[in-house]
Design a protein that fits this description.
The structure is a homodimer of 253-residue chains. In chain A, helix 8 packs antiparallel against helix 9. The first copy, chain A, is elongated, with a radius of gyration of 22 Å. Chain A is of the alpha/beta class and 253 residues long. Chain A has an 8-stranded mixed β-sheet with strand order 3-2-1-4-5-6-7-8, covered by helices on one side. At the A-B interface, helix 5, helix 6, helix 7, helix 8 and helix 9 of A face helix 4, helix 5, helix 6, helix 7 and helix 8 of B.
């Protein structure tokens, strides 16, 4: 049994919370938030509190809060337990005022509106001491079958890669959905393509999976697409990305 | 039973071919390619030929060739059958020299190395005459459960949207895979995230699904990411897309 205090009430916290509750080997001692309103999601299923300076005893205190706030908020915590954060980009050193500290970064996109299972989610852990590494390995193994020990530097680069495959890929979906809306086309039509684009990576590298007018140097279609895009920013994105795809061929739009 | 002649030997042709062979109601009368070498894939399972000017009799002649070549190659075809192309961006008029002509655009990413089932793939059809529409509806229904009748103009906009969700999203995967390689990180770690990014759209609009430093205005992380990116083009893409995501908040990097 591992006991945890969950600090923070956002997307990551809610997703971790559900996985914790589903696991009989994890005991959520308390969830701590800024306001009673932010704790509404949790309060019927766990003890909740708004006092960050008075932590109950638990094996691990999990700071699942905004990157910007981690270092400052961690200073409020008066505990000898292992204190960890869940951020991809914040260095482990942000928690070094604590006796024991570490990182537990689940590499996934979390939204409160869609709680997901963590089984397949890689969890990147980092600690200063062997004993804490064991503890985080144990917590990780209760949630996921993919635990990776990564330094802060490597985790940062992985998080940066994640911004490309998630944040930026999702923005491509957003632009497509806008184009569909403007032309009375059903965005649903694109979903099988979106899924196959992701699924293709099980078989092919992204380099091998690349198709389209930029890849095959079809300038007629590229130029026509630029005239069809009404939004200047969409044109700029289309041009930059098509040129990037074409870059290996040494040609420019 | 519908009989077809398949003209072209590329990714679309190979994927259609497999679905045709799997369907006892479709008869592939012949596959026509430029060279014997290009026909190697087909030759043990169908009649093949390199003579584009001498078509066998069939209900439908399917031009599954490069967009650039459709109009020119269609002029070589001496037939009274329904002639169709499979392109997202080429107007139906490119085939107007024929007596009967149309478009049969399967909205999906096709590569020869990964043959996929067409069941869920939206097939966008267009014809000039009702009788031909029925014929294409019939062929489409044998392959997929999603047939959509679309004008050339709408199909063009759908294809443009597809470039964003497929070509450009895949380029995001490529950049991430390069960052991983440079930092000795396993690109495999990103695959659950890539899949969930796509799967999320079953529950949320892309606008609602957006997360990340640009979305939440986390300038510290944004600026740090720019310093971590070694490739100037990756930096340019990161900046443009982050600014685009931030655009609705009126702030710039």
């Amino acid at each position: 049994m591992i006991s945890v205090v969950l600090l923070g009430t956002g997307n990551v916290s809610k997703n971790l919370f559900e996985s914790f509750l589903n696991n009989s080997d994890i005991d959520v001692v308390q969830v701590i938030g800024r306001t009673q309103a932010s704790l509404a999601y949790f309060k019927d299923r766990a003890k909740t509190a708004t006092d960050w300076g008075n932590l109950p005893i638990a094996d691990i205190c999990i700071l699942a809060i905004n990157d910007d706030a981690i270092e400052e908020v961690s200073k409020l915590l008066n505990t000898d337990s292992l204190v960890i954060h869940t951020s991809g980009s914040v260095p482990i050193k942000a928690l070094q005022l604590h006796k024991r500290y570490g990182v537990f970064y689940p590499l996934q996109t979390f939204t409160a509106q869609k709680i997901i299972a963590l089984d397949e989610v890689p969890i990147c852990i980092e600690t200063e001491w062997e004993e804490d590494l064991e503890q985080l390995n144990k917590l990780g193994a209760l949630l996921s079958n993919r635990i990776v020990s990564l330094s802060s530097e490597k985790r940062k680069m992985l998080h940066l890669s994640a911004v490309f495959v998630n944040n930026f890929a999702n923005h491509m979906y957003t632009i497509a959905s806008q184009i569909c809306k403007e032309n009375n086309l059903d965005f649903e039509l694109l979903k099988p393509l979106i899924k196959e684009t992701a699924a293709k990576l099980d078989t092919l590298t992204p380099e091998k999976a690349q198709t389209g007018p930029a890849k095959r140097g079809d300038f007629k279609t590229l130029h026509e697409h630029l005239t069809l895009l009404e939004e200047p920013q969409h044109r700029e994105i289309y041009k930059l990305l098509s040129n990037a795809i074409k870059a290996s061929y040494g040609e420019k739009l």
